[in-house]
């Protein structure tokens, strides 16, 4: 009988077993399952590259993102200026790097913070039920029924444009979704018999809902965090494009895109908005891939 | 001598039925409607009845997983100290939670999929004062061996086990604090028959080794016959017959028990069994029929059954106590 490649593999395993070199991998299941997911790994690599590049922006680029250089306005991409320069002669590549810092900070930061708020409220209220749940549900409905853009307009006109105001708005409007997700999972989980078993031991509510139930509710939340990171980055870009987001003097991906409002720029100077648009899309795509990977790998019943 | 471990008096569990815009309570599901029951130390008490008769609710309410609406549950310790559990604050229940445990029906939802066996079993031990990790591992390992599983299995996840194995892990969980009474809530009904026998034998072995008392909730009277010392038959939230398990099969008093027993399949082709087929469904526990709750389906119902609610009366069969609630029993009643 011809030896298939599978047979060879088994032979190898047997050989290693006989030589006692066969060791069980100590890597945790979740990590190895994640690493088996190619798209997620690619996503993670690009995600890391973009984050590192933003963090080490001063090392990667000799230019100052804010410095106006009127002698080199609107230059097409060249060896000196990889992504060209904008209408005031600032290096677009440098600005994309520095802009990444702010945009990613806003996106990830507001997603994680709103998830923390949403999960904290949702888990407890969902598990406990009763009047706590009713109040939390109504409050979240009020927040979610309010149009985000109007809230932004209102708050920006009251408190002025700033990075932290924007994040605060994102968290205010974003926690409701997370809360509902966490709550819905908790509602179905609390009828599971292992939860009742824990209750029959008289364990405290906190131990039961945050330690034992939360891990089972986490995978949809994980995906939602990544999705809302992407969404917040896009919203930031959109708001900054409209001039409502982060103050224009701080470079963010949205603020860089802002120049594309000018039809002249849009038609003639593609490098001012093209590369940054691609970076945003690639980053958001990577974040989504990572989210999918995380969902699959944190699901304990799925084999890696 | 027989000594009680748990006494239920006038035990009721009602669930409110809400309707309308303002969530007004329009009625109650009387899941358990006035049960008096003594469970004796060291016995296996079967609790049988069809789906929806309230047997699971009764089991859970004893452990206060469901809050009882009315009535008393009294725990009697080995030293004859009586404590009423229903009036205790939740946090004062802790010392008694050690004594009363439960094994659940569905082995697939009774273990936390995100934790290893050790991970999900260690918190209760921690709570009850087993502080060193080695000690916790030892306790769980020993118990796993006691249910014929390998010690190393404690580091595996639930999805790596079969249904029978999971059920045994569920038993380990119930045993880990060294309880005195275990409520087995349909503990074997989700398993197939050969595994059922294994698990039942294991339960009996453990009972012998650990001086356990079981409240064995089931809808399968063929299991109870093999297993139980006494059997209580429930119908619509009430106990209709309570007696030694042998007497239930030989000297059946209540027509409902008769019908249940006639439905047990017999592995003998020559034996002609007369099956009593009950018409209709269990009446709604929101709105139980007047008089005897069983009268609309009872083949023997008389006029008195439609008006008067029978009470659980004490009779004697074979020299044993035999309780039944039916108007049509000819035996002389024994006063308490």
Task: Please describe what this structure looks like.
The complex is a heterodimer of chains A (304) and B (336). Chain A is mostly helical. Chain A has one domain: MetI-like (MetI-like fold, Orthogonal Bundle). In chain A, 71% of the residues lie in helices and 0% in strands. In chain A, helix 3 crosses helix 5 and helix 7 packs antiparallel against helix 8. Chain A is flat and about 75 Å long. The two termini of chain A are 31 Å apart. The model of chain A has no long low-confidence stretch (mean pLDDT 83). Chain B has 336 residues and is an alpha/beta fold. The mean pLDDT of chain B is 86. In chain B, helix 4 packs across helix 5. Helices cover 28% and strands 26% of the residues of chain B. The radius of gyration of chain B is 21 Å and the shape is globular. Chain B contains 10 helices and 12 strands. The longest helix of chain B has 18 residues. The interface between A and B is medium-sized, with 18 and 31 residues.
If you average the pLDDT of chain A, what whole number results?
83
Structural class of chain A: mainly alpha
The arrangement of helices and strands of chain B along the chain is EEEHEEHEHHHEHEHEEHHHEE
Number of domains of chain A: 1
CATH C-level label of chain A: Mainly Alpha
Question: How large is the share of residues in beta strands of chain A?
Answer: under 5%
Largest interface, chains and sizes = A-B, 18 and 31 residues
Tell me briefly what this model is.
Chain A is 71% helix and 0% strand.
Write the layout of secondary structure elements.
The complex is a heterodimer of chains A (304) and B (336).
Chain A: H1 5-18, H2 29-36, H3 38-55, H4 57-60, H5 92-128, H6 130-145, H7 148-159, H8 163-189, H9 193-200, H10 205-241, H11 253-257, H12 263-268, H13 274-298
Helix pairs in contact in A: 2-13, 3-5, 3-13, 5-6, 5-8, 5-10, 6-8, 7-8, 8-10, 10-13
Chain B: E1 4-19, E2 24-40, E3 44-48, H1 55-62, E4 70-76, E5 82-84, H2 94-97, E6 100-103, H3 117-127, H4 133-146, H5 163-175, E7 181-185, H6 193-210, E8 213-218, H7 221-227, E9 230-235, E10 238-244, H8 245-250, H9 255-262, H10 303-307, E11 313-317, E12 320-324
Parallel strand pairs in B: 3-8, 3-9, 6-7, 7-8
Antiparallel strand pairs in B: 1-2, 1-4, 4-5, 9-10, 10-12, 11-12
Helix pairs in contact in B: 4-5, 5-6
């Amino acid at each position: 009988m011809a030896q298939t490649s599978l047979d060879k593999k088994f032979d190898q395993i047997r050989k290693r077993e006989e030589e006692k070199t066969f060791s069980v991998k100590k890597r945790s299941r979740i990590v190895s399952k994640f690493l088996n997911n190619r798209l997620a790994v690619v996503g993670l690599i690009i995600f890391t590259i973009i984050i590192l590049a933003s963090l080490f922006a001063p090392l990667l680029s000799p230019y100052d993102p804010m410095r106006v250089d009127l002698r080199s306005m609107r230059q097409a991409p060249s060896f000196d200026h990889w992504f060209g320069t904008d209408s005031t002669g600032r290096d677009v590549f440098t600005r994309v790097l520095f802009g990444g810092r702010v945009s990613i900070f806003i996106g990830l930061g507001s997603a994680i913070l709103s998830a923390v708020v949403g999960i904290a409220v949702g888990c407890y209220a969902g598990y406990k039920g009763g009047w706590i749940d009713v109040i939390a549900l109504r409050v979240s409905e009020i927040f979610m029924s309010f149009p985000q853009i109007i809230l932004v307009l209102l708050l920006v006109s009251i408190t002025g444009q700033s990075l932290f105001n924007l994040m605060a708005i994102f968290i205010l409007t974003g926690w409701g979704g997370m809360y509902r997700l966490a709550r819905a999972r908790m509602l179905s989980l609390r009828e599971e018999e292992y939860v009742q078993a824990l209750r029959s031991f008289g364990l405290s509510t906190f131990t039961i809902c945050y330690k034992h139930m939360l891990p089972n509710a986490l995978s949809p939340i994980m995906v939602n965090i990544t999705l809302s990171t992407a969404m917040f980055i896009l919203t930031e870009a959109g708001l900054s494009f409209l001039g409502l987001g982060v103050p224009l003097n701080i470079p963010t991906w949205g603020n860089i895109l802002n120049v594309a409002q000018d039809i002249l720029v849009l038609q003639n100077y593609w490098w001012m908005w093209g590369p940054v648009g691609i970076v945003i899309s690639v980053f958001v795509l990577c974040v989504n891939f990572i989210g999918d990977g995380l969902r699959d790998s944190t699901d304990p019943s799925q084999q890696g | 001598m027989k000594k009680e471990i748990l006494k239920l008096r006038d035990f009721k569990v009602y669930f409110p039925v809400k309707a309308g815009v303002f969530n007004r309570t329009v009625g109650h599901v009387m899941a358990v409607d006035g049960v008096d029951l003594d469970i004796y130390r060291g016995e296996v008490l079967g609790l049988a009845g069809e789906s929806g008769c309230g047997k699971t609710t009764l089991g859970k309410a004893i452990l206060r997983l469901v809050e009882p609406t009315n009535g008393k549950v009294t725990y009697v310790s080995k030293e004859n100290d009586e404590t009423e559990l229903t009036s205790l604050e939740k946090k004062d229940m802790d010392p008694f939670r050690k004594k009363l445990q439960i094994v659940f029906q569905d082995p697939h939802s009774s273990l936390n999929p995100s934790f290893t066996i050790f991970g999900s079993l260690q918190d209760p031990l921690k709570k009850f004062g087993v502080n060193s990790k080695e000690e916790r591992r030892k306790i769980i390992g020993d118990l796993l061996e006691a249910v014929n599983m390998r010690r190393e299995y404690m580091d595996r996840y639930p999805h790596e086990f079969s249904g029978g194995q999971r059920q045994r892990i569920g038993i380990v969980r119930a045993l880990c604090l060294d309880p005195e009474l275990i409520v087995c809530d349909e503990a074997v009904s989700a398993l197939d028959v050969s595994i059922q026998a294994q698990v039942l034998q294991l339960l009996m072995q453990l009972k012998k080794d650990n001086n356990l008392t079981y409240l064995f909730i089931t809808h399968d009277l063929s299991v109870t016959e093999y297993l139980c010392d006494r059997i209580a038959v429930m119908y619509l939230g009430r106990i209709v017959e309570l007696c030694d398990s042998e007497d239930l099969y030989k000297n059946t008093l209540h027509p409902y028990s008769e019908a249940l027993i006639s439905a047990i399949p017999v592995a003998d082709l020559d034996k002609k069994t007369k099956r009593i087929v009950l018409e209709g469904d269990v009446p709604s526990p929101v709105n139980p029929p007047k008089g005897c709750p069983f009268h609309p389906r009872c083949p023997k119902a008389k006029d008195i059954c439609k008006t008067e609610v029978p009470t659980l009366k004490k009779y004697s069969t074979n020299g044993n106590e035999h309780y039944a609630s039916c108007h049509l029993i000819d035996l002389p009643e024994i006063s308490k």
